[in-house]
Write a structure and sequence with these properties.
By secondary structure, the protein is mainly beta. Helices cover 2% and strands 47% of the residues. The protein contains one helix and 65 strands. The strands form 18 sheets. Strands 7, 8, 10, 13, 18 and 19 form a six-stranded mixed sheet that branches. Strands 30, 31, 33, 34 and 35 form a five-stranded antiparallel sheet that branches. Strands 38, 39, 41, 42 and 43 form a five-stranded antiparallel sheet that branches. Strand 46 and strand 47 form a beta hairpin. The radius of gyration is 38 Å and the shape is globular. The relative contact order is 0.06.
Length: 883
Amino acid sequence: MENLYKVLFFILFTVIVFNHSEVHATHIKAGEITAERLSSSTLQYRFTLTVYTDSTSLVDDPEATLYFGDGTNQTVKRTTKISVGNKTYKNVYVFDHTYSASGYFIVGYKEVNRNGKILNISNSDNTAFYIETSLSIDPFLGVNNTPVLLVPPIDLAAVGEVYSHNPGAYDPDGDSLSFKFTVPKQEVGMNVFGYKSLNDPSFGAGVKLSLDPVKGDLVWDKPQIEGLYNVAIIIEEWRGGVRIGYIVRDMQIEVKKTQNNPPVLNPPKDTCITAGTVLNKTITAEDPDNHQIKLSSYSGVYGLVNSKAVFVAKEVQPSPASGIFSWTTICDHVNDQPYIVVFKAEDVPVGAEKLVDVKSWAITVTGPSPNGLTVTANNAGINLKWFPYSCPNADKIFIYRKECESSGYVGAPCETGIPEYLGFEKVAEVGATETSYYDDNNGKGLKRGVKYCYMIVAVFDGVVFSHPSEEACAGLDLDVPIITNATVITTDAIKGEIKVTWTKPTPRPLPHGEAYIIKRGVGFNPLNYMVIDTLFSFDDTTYNDQNIDTKNYSYSYKVDFLYNNLNTLKGTSDNASTTWITVAPGDAKAFIEWETNVPWSIEYVTIQRSINKQPWQTVDTIYTEENKGSYIDSKGLKNNSDTVCYYVTTYGRYCDERLENRLLINDSEVACTVPRDSIPPCPPILQVEQPDCYINDYENFLSWVNKIDPACNKDIKGYNIYFAGRQEEELELIGSTVDTFYIHTDSLSLAGCYAVTALNYYGVESEKSNIVCVDACVYYELPNLITPNNDTLNDVFQPFPTPKGVESVQFSVYNRWGKLVFYKDDDIYIKWNGSITDGKVSDGVYFYQAVVKFYRRLRKEDEVKEIKSWLHIIDNTNGITPR
């Protein structure tokens, strides 16, 4: 009964809002609302309401009322009324309105009634016509205008023929548009009763209605039943990937039986064109009945401020008909979204209904490539230079780099930016007016022996990329030592030995008198290096580092080069480390991991093995480009008896052709282990006992039993407990126990998911048990009546006792005109007695909205509950009516 009262009150409220005191037929066919901001300094907008009506009707609407979504409305006289063909009047009403503040507004228009005898709307002539447009006014968005619809919805459809329509939408701000069907409305928030989609089987088997979400092409293939039909399209406006508004076109389609056949358009294929070039295309259409054809076109490109497009065609011409589209594109036209051009061919038969074909053409204007990119080595970096960019409206130049391989990329006409599959990474960005950049890896220096390839792109509006430049490649000068080996010769904690080799600097500098200073650090990226020796011969490029601990440590090396009788430091080699291997036991297997940090590229790794001091053998070869990896050896190993030792050999090259493509071979130290039993236990079987929300709501009781399976290890030492606060999150370890139960407490929320693992005496962990998820105890309900007359009964508006799991509440109250009269967000109990700034509200019915935020729920989307309902205030002494 309460829900029935709500529905009845909602209908009554809507009638009051739209102020209709009588029912009268207007025979509306279609309509939409568009908005234009009149000033960037004020919030003044001009709304244009366009309504298409049946010209055979005696009913006329010289006035219209628009509701601006801020609690106000305006009634104006009609601006124009013109015949647009097919027994249709186009009625235009213009409203100027200034908003008092930023916000999100739903602007609506309602009139009764729709045109009669619409086949997919029950009782259509007694069904109200309602359309709306949403508008975002936000200083962070800047100026925002709604899309504009250029193509009127007046064309006829023929039984058994394809019908097409495109609203010709374009956005004056350059925002992206998308299209989808929506159900026509008869009230605010109320869909038309008895509405059927045109894809309903009752309208013909195989008949299909579709709408292109990007271009807006509506195609009905092929209507079978004569009569009137209704569809509604919502055109959404997007900026930066966020929807900022929409408009709705509610339109009627009239299907007729006719012997006439519609003309056929032949539009060009969707295309991309680089800004600064001219696009010329001939558009043709043919009529199967050889009737004359009228060609027309609609698009925002015809109204551009700078360098607008033109379409030239005779008004009426014999079949085949043709027209010329011409557009000289400029940099201002660059956009990541295509410009949609709509073409319409209408036949001109004698004594028959006119039919049309409507098709769209998508034109994407891309930014030209930056030109003249050159790269040259300079010390530890590379200088990039390029010509000034040709488009002054670009924001940035993005710089991309790739090591070793030239891509040989030749882009497709519509491919902009740097495709990910090329393997480039963005390394910098500079202003669009810049013409150079020095890349030294943010002060860290680039690596010698590596070929670096670069491409640059221009960026518009932060997101629109130009075509990339041509690729340019270079490597640093080889005028310092290039380390080629850091290989372990002997593994020992005291008498370990490592061999280090390098190339001679080229060209050899003058005057002579050279020395190599060898430096060593501990680990892969040491902070400190110590000098371990100096070699005074230019031709001496090998050093054996002896009597060091290679069993427990890896090392890194650098080589300084001095010349001019040791007075001048020419430079230092890049860091190169030894390869470090770790080995861990498994069940008749060994787990091997390795890592190195070298300036050359790894191509493959071999795993060398010796069992019980037998000769070394190659176990496997792994092809990889990574500096680290892992391997599991299970070939012929025995538990608790075999001592198995390993080392890995890495094979790699420098990708600079000047280093002769020489294969670089380096060995790790030797590491040993003894395989042992590592069979994990079976995962336990978990259950979670959730507390009674009315008695105890701060702890969950977990218990589990061990699964019995001969394949599992039965020697269980303990258990790990894993938890995730929400269903979509990863489980994390929260505790361990030797018992088969666990109590998890949380005073705010017990929502979450649990799993348990078992561990054997070697610390081997089972797989996770079954995952059990529980939700939090939550409760929040609000009344629909208060009597704030100080009689201690229902004096304040507050939730029913007792709320559970509630973190915060945002509570808003609106009067019947949609104006906010009360707001509170600092008390979940609200406790409103009807007071407002000017006193107290008067008796009556109000709408309220409560946005309830719960503490953690199992699903994040359940943490916010929106309650919308009505509130009846009675006996509010001396109340006032807020407006």
